[in-house]
Amino acid sequence: MSERESMPYDVVIVGAGPAGLSAAIRLKQLAAEKEAEISVCVLEKGSEVGAHILSGAVIDPRSLDELLPTWRDDGCPLAEVPVRENLHWILTRGRKFDMPHFLTPPFMHNKGTYTGSLGNLCRWLAEKAGELGVEIFPGFAAAEILYDEQGRVKGVATGDMGVARDGEHKPDYQPGLELHAKYTFFSEGCRGHLTKQLIRQFDLDADSDPQVYGLGIKELWDIDPALHEPGRVIHTQGWPLSETDGSSGGGWIYHQANGQLSIGFVTWLNYTNPHLSPFQEMQRWKTHPQVAALLKGGKRVSYGARAISDGGLQSIPKLTFPGGALIGDCAGFLNVPRIKGTHTAMKSGMMAAEAAVEAIVSQRELDELTAYPAAFEQSWVKKELSIVRNVVPLVKKFGEFMGSGLAGITMWLEYFGIKVPFTMHHHPDNETLWRKDLVPKIDYPKPDGVLTFDRLSSVFLSNTNHEEDQPVHLTLKDPSIPVDYDLPMFDEPAQRYCPAGVYEIVGEEEGNPRFVINAQNCVHCKTCDIKDPTQNITWVVPEGGGGPNYPNM
Fold first, then answer.
1. Annotated catalytic residue 522
2. pTM for the whole thing?
3. Which residues pair with residue 41 across a beta bridge?
4. pLDDT per residue over 269-322, tens digit each?
5. Would you call the peptide bond into 57 cis, given omega within 30 degrees of 0 as the criterion?
6. What angle do CA 334, 103, 112 make, to 5 degrees?
7. Omega before 61 cis (within 30°)?
8. What is the spatial distance between Cα 106 and Cα 242, in angstroms, rounded to a whole number?
9. 349 belongs to a structural domain
10. Which of 306, 338, 455, 496 is an active site residue?
């Protein structure tokens, strides 16, 4: 076996999303202020920074103002489109009703926010980090956590390259690289595969609820210029999920730069009907007259999907462990009612960076950065998430409309400083499915290829690519479960919850069903790792550089 080379850094950051890049920038800023040399490396599994970034996005610039105050005048692409109009539609099958602004607290109104591509914002942040001396390695996937003799995290190792599907080394085989650090930040995004291991290893969720999730599916459209209104932001709830008991979610419509419309649909993954397909619900949502009218004459130019962490404050695990910290959406800082997590993710990275600099200049290493969770407890992030902590569980318990009403009351009370004397709790999404014979089947219309589409043509627009001759990165703990248990119980729900057509049951009509994994289609959304009823599917990193290549997403 080839010996792995190693490289030492003061801080290694896994993931070049908004949290990881903000942490890197803040580390270098503080190092310069203190006249200290602090080396920082960022690993990114995508082929380039931004390749795996997907969001709506409407972004609160609060953290960006703090991190880089001159960003509006410094070529940041986010500055192009400030939000000018904010609407909330309640949809029925053929109609829409506008929700009056006075029903929701002011922090829900998107005042002072911007809409644009989070991927492009990350590309810009990477440029700023590079100017400060941060080393960024795209195309390198962190595949293994490294521990020292005391069980402290001392860094990560990247995945081997050039390994064949059967595990044999190909002629171009290259062993992974070890990156050693005084502190390692994990900013892998929602359901990070190394984050899962850390949570188990250090029991980080001992005092928190299970994390719960939604699946966001996004399309980018070039639309008729006569219909384009830059800065117009619309959110929807109700139809079509209102027609399926035990399901919740909603859509977004953002008028962005260059005549483009960002549209998307989030399905909360606690749904109970195994026949439900989040992808098909998104396609059906587009057929609503109000949505379809905006897309008439337009062209779909990009597609993608990503799970999001919906648990809020009560699902945030312990943030630190010996040698490192969790930052961003892998820890779950999303504010679900505001549909915003970029600003909180960035701030988490900045707080972790401040704690790490304090430790490094004090000659510490591999200990717990206790100053980071202490800073979180006193931060506006904690306050913001506390105000909305009961919204998601109320909607899940009482349904979309009654639950939303109760959630609105709790937000108003908290907004006026009246502390609601309870915190509701979450239950794992993989435990919610009912048996297939206890719920009605859902009849989804066939795609027309103009407004609605199938999954394979959609995956094509995500520019997804994987080296085919490599080990399958979607692993099964027990290969018999999909056919022997999931199929008779739930009609194998992976066929429907995956937005990329990765999973299929073939041969069922001949009486010889087989479970097929088309791993090359995977867009790295992590839904299978979350929703699989027995937690039999585990997502691990493929070769670095594989996966989607999202432009402007």
1. yes
2. 0.96
3. 12, 135
4. 999 999 999 999 999 999 999 999 999 999 999 999 999 999 999 999 999 999
5. yes
6. 55
7. no
8. 27
9. yes
10. 306
* Closest by Cα among 312, 307, 309, 311 to 381: 312
122 in active site: no
Question: CA–CA distance from 250 to each of 83, 91, 253, 339 (Å)?
Answer: 20, 10, 11, 11
Whether 196 is covered by a domain: the verdict is yes
* Catalytic annotation present for 267: no
Q: Give the H or E element holding residue 353.
A: helix 342-361
Residue 390's closest CA among 328, 338, 330, 313? 313
- Residue 63 domain-assigned? yes
- Of 12, 38, 63, the closest CA to residue 133 belongs to 38
Out of 55, 63, 262, 432, pick the active-site residue. Answer: 55
Which residues, 6 or more positions from 527, have their beta carbon under 8 angstroms from its beta carbon? 213, 215, 269, 278, 305, 307, 497, 498, 499
And the tokens for 532?
A: 């699989």
Q: Is 278 exposed, middle or buried (0-12, 13-18, 19+ CB in 10 A)?
A: buried
Express each pLDDT in 426-475 by its tens digit.
999 999 999 999 999 999 999 999 999 999 999 999 999 999 999 999 99
pLDDT given for residue 2 in this prediction? 56
| 342 part of a folded domain | yes
CATH of the domain at 137: 3.50.50.60
Out of 41, 76, 190, 525, the active site residue is 525
Q: Give the DSSP letter of residue 79.
A: G
Pick the catalytic residue: 115, 342, 404, 432? 342
Give the helix/strand (H/E) hosting 98: strand 96-98
Task: Name beta bridge partners: 517.
Answer: 503
Catalytic residue at 55?
A: yes
Cβ neighbours around 545 below 10 Å, total: 20
Read off the tokens for 178: 């070890």
SS3 of residue 226 by DSSP: helix
Which residue range is the domain that position 146 belongs to?
7-68+119-160+173-208+317-387
Domains identified in the chain, total number:
1
Q: Which of 46, 234, 218, 21 is nearest to 129 (CA)?
A: 21
Which pLDDT score is estimated for 1?
43
Give the per-residue pLDDT at 300: 98
| Token representation of residue 43 | 């690993």
Phi, psi of 143 (to 5 degrees): -110, -15
- pLDDT at residue 411 in the model: 92
Strand, coil or helix: 102: helix
Q: Please say if 92 is a catalytic residue.
A: no
Q: Which of 312, 221, 308, 212 is nearest to 266 (CA)?
A: 308
pLDDT category at 483 given cuts 50, 70, 90 is: very high
Q: Residue 257, preceding bond cis, omega within 30 degrees?
A: no
Number of other residues whose CB lies within 10 A of the CB of residue 506:
11
